[in-house]
Amino acid sequence: MLNLDDRFPRRKLAFFPSPLQPLGRLSERLGVEVWAKRDDVSSGLAYGGNKVRKLEWLVADAIEQGCDTLVSIGGVQSNHTRQVAAVAAACGLKCRLVQEHWAEWEDPVYDKVGNILLSRLMGAKAVLEGEGYSTAVKETWERALDEVRREGGTPYAIPAGASDHPLGGLGYADFADELARQEEAQGLFFDTVVTATCTGSTQAGMAVGFKGQDRPRRLIGIDTAANAEMTRAAVTKIARATAELIGLNRAIEDEDVVIEPRFCGPDYGVPDETTISAIRMAAELEAMITDPVYEGKSMAGLIAMAEAGELDKGAKVLYVHLGGAPALDAYHAAFAG
Ligand SMILES: Cc1ncc(COP(=O)(O)O)c(C=O)c1O
């Protein structure tokens, strides 16, 4: 166990441990035992998701540093920025968000419903400017930070996805401890873990946490950025930095970062038929709601790999559900008919 709580400040905001749920009807359909870890329902903050798990550590640092405004960046329908807005509201901080044009998805309500609506509702100032998915430091984000300073505030900078930040990997490294405790209590072990991956710190944190455990697991990151090499570089960099930060006594090897490129659809934020049918299958069999940007793609990967015999028949597979359903309304046209 890494026991990170004893070593780094954390502001507890979510309802952890997140539930572990057997997906009986999906398992029967696929012929492989599949469970879900429901990080999508683990938070009372504005529908939750994976960023709350990461932000518990970043916001504790922001408060310790005396910052009064969280400043972050994402796409227009970013789940991440909605969770930054939620954490800011819950902690009595201000919030400024840069919402860039990242997804080539045309819809008249794309910038009005779902995540961005919720962020505005929670008092965040959402500025729509900039374009192009990238985890690089953007000029739009620098400008937002400067504006907060000019207005007399003290900003705390949170990068896209809370990923490329010294504390970005802690949340999902701690997730590995949480999972191990649940497995021990229930007499289970998941040898295969499937997760969506994009800005990288979710998979990176898990890779570090699992590496610290004695029993090896197969961790498969389903790329959703439609740029597997960029995603691999991000995950590897964050995993190594996190391993160093926590003093892990094992090195993160290149083989520890498995990025599966086949299920990302035509582009970031754009679903294809495989994504849509996976979303329908999870909804119809399990009433488990996934989204067209992230979880629908990781679900598509899980289904396709099971059907192709790429998941061992005797495996116990854990599908990590990282949230994302608030974006669904902005994609209503994909489900018409
Ligand atoms: C719902 C959802 N799933 C998966 C991801 C991918 O997580 P990460 O950016 O940490 O790789 C994100 C955010 O990017 C997300 O919002």
Report what the structure shows:
The structure is a single chain. The chain has 337 residues and is α/β, with parallel strands linked by helices. The chain has 2 domains: 4-48 and 166-335, 3-Layer(aba) Sandwich (Rossmann fold); 51-162, Rossmann fold. The protein is 38% helix and 16% strand. The protein contains 10 helices and 10 strands. It has helices at residues 24-30, 50-64, 79-91, 114-121, 139-150, 170-186, 201-211, 228-246, 273-286, 295-307, and strands at 20-22, 33-38, 69-75, 94-101, 125-131, 155-158, 192-197, 218-223, 259-260, 316-321. A 6-stranded mixed beta sheet has the order 1-2-10-7-8-9, with helices on both faces. A 4-stranded parallel beta sheet has the order 5-4-3-6, with helices on both faces. Helix 2 (50-64) crosses helix 6 (170-186) and helix 3 (79-91) runs parallel beside helix 4 (114-121). It starts with 19 loop residues before the first strand and ends in a 16-residue tail after the last strand. The site of pyridoxal-5'-phosphate has 19 residues, from helix 3, strand 7 and helix 7. Pyridoxal-5'-phosphate binds at residues 49-50, 79-80, 161, 163, 196-203, 294-295, 322-324.
